[in-house]
Amino acid sequence: MVIEFKDISVVVQGPVQAYQGRAQDDGITHKCIASIREFLPGATVILSTWEGQDCTGLEPDLLLLNQDPGGTIVSYRKDGTPGKLNFNRQLVSSAAGLSAVKTPYAVKIRSDNFLTGNGFVAAQQAYPKRNSEDVLFTERVVVNTSYFRKYADGKRLVMLPSDFFHFGRTEDLLKIWDIPLFPDLEYDPAKAGQPQYYGAPMTAPHAEQIYCNAWLGALDKRAPRLEYRHHATPAMREYWDRFMASNFVVLEPQQIGLGLIDRFIPKSKRPNEMSHLDWLLLYKKYCDQTYPASSLALFYSIGWRRLFKLPFSHLKHVLKQI
């Protein structure tokens, strides 16, 4: 099946200028919307941002000015000072935009990213075989490798997909983003003088893990519950690998046609991130054993660097804990 651009809506979510602790490159959202018009002509553009943002010169097909839910308290330092992250800000702007979509397919993209091509459209349909036991999305969702971590601190992780870019059926993207808002972490006086956070005293999960564990758990009662960042038993790793194989298409930014601002672009591929070749091997293992994915190609591209990098990352983490 060929997906036509007119059947796609692009939800551009987030601030369009510097906003409450988040820097923003001048004009980047203008560049984002212009790139959508260039590479997806005929697609609907929805900008989902915040009340009070200056949207002068931006010309989306639909502008949503959401009420700011504020930062979410996710931790307390030893002195009781709360730590906040933008959990609910991303949920509100993404869910509001996707809920307004009228087309069968949708893109969710950050307001500080942009398109450099449209390769993701064909790629979404390019891997037709799926394991029926593992299918949770109606169709595959295209996800970006940037900040899609496979390892952290030299150890294997689960449930840490990138949240920069998603493309798939609108109903599937809503399964990811239209979830209940996270409550603020309540301060526990009995733990005064100690750091308080989800997963304590182990290492706190990354924000993307907390998102993923929430929506995946809502989709599948079999989904394991993540207790801390490195919680990854063999059964959990297999569950996550099987999910990725049948529900995602994991692509490098260049394959997607995704442009990143300078601070998100590494000098070379990060060894701790998922790669497209990693995902192809999962696709071959769990969906299509005839697919010509190569372990040797993975080794020559990034595997050999992991042999050197990951042990040092783990040692650094251990020394930091001491």
Parts with pLDDT < 50 across at least 5 consecutive residues: none
For the CA atoms, what is the radius of gyration?
20 Å
Total strands: the figure is: 14
Could you give the order of strands across the largest sheet?
A: 3-2-1-6-11-8-13
Shape: globular
Please, what is the average pLDDT? 94
Describe the largest sheet.
7 strands, mixed
What is the percent of helical residues? 25-40%
Number of helices: 9
Q: What features would you describe in this structure?
A:
The chain is an alpha/beta fold and 322 residues long. The protein contains nine helices and 14 strands. The protein has helices spanning 28-39, 87-99, 119-123, 170-177, 207-219, 234-247, 253-256, 276-286, 295-321; strands at residues 8-13, 44-50, 62-66, 72-76, 82-85, 105-110, 114-115, 141-144, 151-152, 155-156, 165-169, 196-197, 248-251, 258-259. The strands form four sheets. A seven-stranded mixed sheet has the order 3-2-1-6-11-8-13, with helices on both faces. The mean pLDDT is 94.
